[in-house]
């Protein structure tokens, strides 16, 4: 990471303008009435651009909507009634409308598009600065980071507000608004999902070419992180050749796994922040509905862990009423981990491998991961390695281990969408005050409603219901 602390004060003087620009880019006349001071908004040097792109609080923050609706927990009526906000109650029961806070810079939509605006600001600033032998390294890192973050935010926004990517109909499916500049006089409209993913892949691919292989902190984009994002995107798109390719490339750069037997289960949050598995650190807040008492993990998931599986003790805490709450967060705190870790990459490569009939590689990856998750007795693991499984059985096991390993990371929603696209027929059910709520496979509610204020201020089309 380039030294930037001395530039952060200068950057902060511009941040209020950048935050406001999130709304300006929607071209609402209401916001166009107040013009920003353009002299203050123009970055003057690579160091200014570096400070803008290193605005980590916005860069690493994701929406908790990727977890609330994913069906891995239930909440009692009394605990739902005790929530201070009604947004998560509606999200919990898959209501079709009014799921997001509106009219604030802290809203989920605003955070995503403010970050994209910051990326575009940096890229436009770079275009005005000559790249030469003296500044090439910093220039390329700024460009690579801006492209990566823009791709990553657009991808995660699509998981919230778009239906699943299906190569058969992506050109006719509503995607996200694609903002590639800072011109707030342009009204936003939705691209197709196909064009959205072409942009994500183009940005992430170029970012991987520009970024250094490794950085000192997992909040700083690097080549490993860009490759990991591409692996995740391609898996979602059912492009298993490329999912395998990029997961493999990322694991060449970072394949370290935690030995769970070395962790202390007596700690409130046993898994440390920035541990060696963390490739990219992103997080979401910890809404009331997800605390360990309210969010009671569904019984079938708890029952899927074997007695010697350390994840059962490290991930969950048993409540007084016999239910289980989740605490195995890779943030080491109550914040949800929404980034990418090596365990996910092993599972991506394993799944892609088995779908490509590379069962030996898939078994090797699955065994390499799971041996680190089981108890040891007399210095030897209690895990029984997988040797003889056909491809269908192995795929089923890999998908189960994704569910067991990657819980509360926003990944189950991602998996539900893509697996139901492919015929998994996973139905979610919850009961509130005696009424049953059901989310059918491929239901239109898998694309959450765009906030009404965004619809009113732009040419953006609301998701159908």
UniProtKB/TrEMBL annotation:
Superkingdom classification of source: Bacteria
Listed transmembrane segments: none
Domain SusD-like N-terminal: residue ranges: 30-235
Gene3D superfamilies, per the entry: 1.25.40.390, 1.25.40.900, 2.20.20.130
Name of this chain's protein: RagB/SusD family nutrient uptake outer membrane protein
Keywords, sorted A to Z: Cell outer membrane, Membrane, Signal
UniProt organism field: Sphingobacterium puteale
InterPro entries assigned: SusD-like_N, SusD_RagB_dom, TPR-like_helical_dom_sf
Organism classification: Bacteria, Pseudomonadati, Bacteroidota, Sphingobacteriia, Sphingobacteriales
Main localisation: membrane
A single GO cellular-component term on record: cell outer membrane
Recorded family membership: Belongs to the SusD family.
PROSITE patterns in UniProt: PROKAR_LIPOPROTEIN
Limits of the RagB/SusD domain: 344-464
Subcellular location: Cell outer membrane
Listed Pfam families: SusD-like_3, SusD_RagB
């Amino acid at each position: 990471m380039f030294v930037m602390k001395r530039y952060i004060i200068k950057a902060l003087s511009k941040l209020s303008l950048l935050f406001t620009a999130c709304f300006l880019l929607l071209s609402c006349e209401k916001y166009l009435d107040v013009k920003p001071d353009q002299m203050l908004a123009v970055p003057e040097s690579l160091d200014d651009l570096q400070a803008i792109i290193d605005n980590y609080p916005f860069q690493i923050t994701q929406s908790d909507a990727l977890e609330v609706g994913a069906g891995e927990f239930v909440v009692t009526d009394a605990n739902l009634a005790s929530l201070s906000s009604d947004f998560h109650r509606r999200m919990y029961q898959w209501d079709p409308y009014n799921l997001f806070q509106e009219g604030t810079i802290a809203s989920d939509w605003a955070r995503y598009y403010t970050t994209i605006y910051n990326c575009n600001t940096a890229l436009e600033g770079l275009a005005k600065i000559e790249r030469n032998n003296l500044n090439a390294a910093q220039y390329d890192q700024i460009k690579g980071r801006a492209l990566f973050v823009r791709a990553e935010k657009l991808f995660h926004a699509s998981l919230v507000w778009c239906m699943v990517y299906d190569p058969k109909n992506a050109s006719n499916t509503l995607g996200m608004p694609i903002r590639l500049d800072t011109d707030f006089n342009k009204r936003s409209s939705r691209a197709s999902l196909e064009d959205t993913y072409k942009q994500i892949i183009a940005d992430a691919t170029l970012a991987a070419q520009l970024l250094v292989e490794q950085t000192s902190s997992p909040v700083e984009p690097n080549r490993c992180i860009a490759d990991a994002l591409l692996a995740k995107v391609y898996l979602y798109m059912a492009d298993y050749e490329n999912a395998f390719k990029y997961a493999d490339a990322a694991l060449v750069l970072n394949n370290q796994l935690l030995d769970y037997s070395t962790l202390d289960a007596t700690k409130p949050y046993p898994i440390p922040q920035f541990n060696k598995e963390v490739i990219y650190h992103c997080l979401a807040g910890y809404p009331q509905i997800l605390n360990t008492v309210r969010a009671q993990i569904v019984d079938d998931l708890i029952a899927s862990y074997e007695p010697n599986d350390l994840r059962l003790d490290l991930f969950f805490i048993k409540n007084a009423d016999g239910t289980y709450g989740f605490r195995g967060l890779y943030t080491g705190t109550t914040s949800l981990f929404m980034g990418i870790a090596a365990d996910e990459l092993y599972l991506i490569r394993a799944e892609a491998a088995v779908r490509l009939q590379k069962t030996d590689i898939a078994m090797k990856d699955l065994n390499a991961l799971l041996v680190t998750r089981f108890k040891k007795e007399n210095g030897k693991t209690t895990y029984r390695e997988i040797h003889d499984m056909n491809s269908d059985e192995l795929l089923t096991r890999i998908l189960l281990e994704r569910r067991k390993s990657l819980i509360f990371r926003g990944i189950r929603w991602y998996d539900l969408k893509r697996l139901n696209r492919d015929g998994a027929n996973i139905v979610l059910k919850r009961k509130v005050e005696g009424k049953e709520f059901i989310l059918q496979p491929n239901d239109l509610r898998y694309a959450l409603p765009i906030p009404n204020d965004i619809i009113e201020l732009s040419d953006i089309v609301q998701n159908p219901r």
